[in-house]
Amino acid sequence: MSFLKGTFFLFFPAVLVLYHALPGRFRALWLLLCSLCFYYLVNPAFVPVLLCYIAFTFGAGLLLEKHRTASQAESGAGSDTESGIQSKAGGAGSAAERRAGTALLAACLVALFSILLVFKYLPKGPFLIMPAGLSFFTFEAAGYLIDVYKGREAEKNPVILALFLSFFPQLLSGPIARAESLLPQLNRLKEERPSLKRSLPALYSGFFLLLWGYFLKLVAADRAALFVDKVFGDFPNYPGTVVFVSALLYVLQLYCDFFGYTTIAAGAAEMLGIKLEDNFGAPFFASSFGEFWRRWHRSLTGWFRDYLYFPLGGSRKGQLRKYVNMLIVFTVSGIWHGNSLNFAVWGLLNGVLLVWSDWTMPFRKKLCGLLKLDPASFSHRLYASLVVLLEFTLGTVFFRAPSVGEALRILKHMALHPGIRAFQQSLFFAEGEAMPGARDVRILLFALGVLLWADWQKYRGKRVRDWIFAQEAWFRDALIIAAPLLILFLGIWGEAFTSSSFVYVHF
Predict the structure, then answer these.
(1) What is the C-alpha to C-alpha distance for residues 101 and 105, in angstroms, rounded to an integer?
(2) Is residue 1 part of a domain?
């Protein structure tokens, strides 16, 4: 099942109504059954894989906690209660237990990621199809087990742990859930739900998030894809300027597609009383490459920061080691996205740009001082944001192209054949059935304007929904009626709609 299929528009209201009608003690079980049903409708063959992950993670978590507790008890037993000095035998035993616990965690992680690697990197065939969402719930399971190893209490309720890994709004493409955030919310589901009147704000807020997500996907992302697919599919026959603009539009498509999915997920979850992480924080207003990545796909970058970058040493072991760790993390991130070399190059290139941004930061600050430039001024921040966008866009060519060689040919074509004069006769101003025309350009520009305005408000720490809720009831209700009609009117519908899918489902 997809958020874009008609079955979801029947499935989710039924889930929502019964969820709010059920007593608290049944809500977690109801959501788990709905989540498994959701995944079954995606592909019945995927369900056994998810159930195996759930069973393995539940058992491994209990085993890690038991081992940690036994290790702590043995360490305490090996101490001299009068002098407080630990005996040599006790210290050795504790160290041995810690090494055994680390080995147990490593074995669990190897088992989890081996399954992911098998599905992701072995040749595909009729008997080896990668389950949708496997990358995301693998990361969730691994993060949970690492947290238990570090001291978090293992989840004793199998229903709650199963729901943590399978919660249907985020199952296919995230955001990647963290135990510290989601598990307490799931455990509170047994509490009695407040009255409908007190639940209305969350229902309103979640519904507006749903609408915003569908606007991003259907009006912005899929409209941009019309141009991107046309140009990248035949780039030698277009001026380099057009190809570059198409690369910019691909960044817009990628952002709105994934932001749209996670916004729909967050909206559906909020209507069920559950808060998911906001996966994007207006990244295109970032004034440095480091800030950009702190705002882009935050659940994934946060996962790599906490579970890979910090264990590698982070920035604690000197600047050179810090930069090596950055390159490792981004290369692994690229490999996670796909099994071809271009994804690894994309990740490494972003790591290099991040290292360059961090290393040159003191020089750039000094230069601003010498030239008496104000880094806080609008003009300077605009310039910095455009530079970051340019860097990310050129790197994303490797993400979009099918191979490294193809990406290099695209970049070469941009540089050597700009064709500025031919731009006005290009795809973006052409009419005809064979290609998108001026109507699509106007709709795309409208969507881009709305997106930039909404993201600017978010960047300033304001929420558009708060402004909407501050208005009178008739205005809110009018928006609830008008917004879906506007999305249907402006979005990609019909055959294009039914065949479209979210980009990150494939990762």
Answers:
(1) 6
(2) no
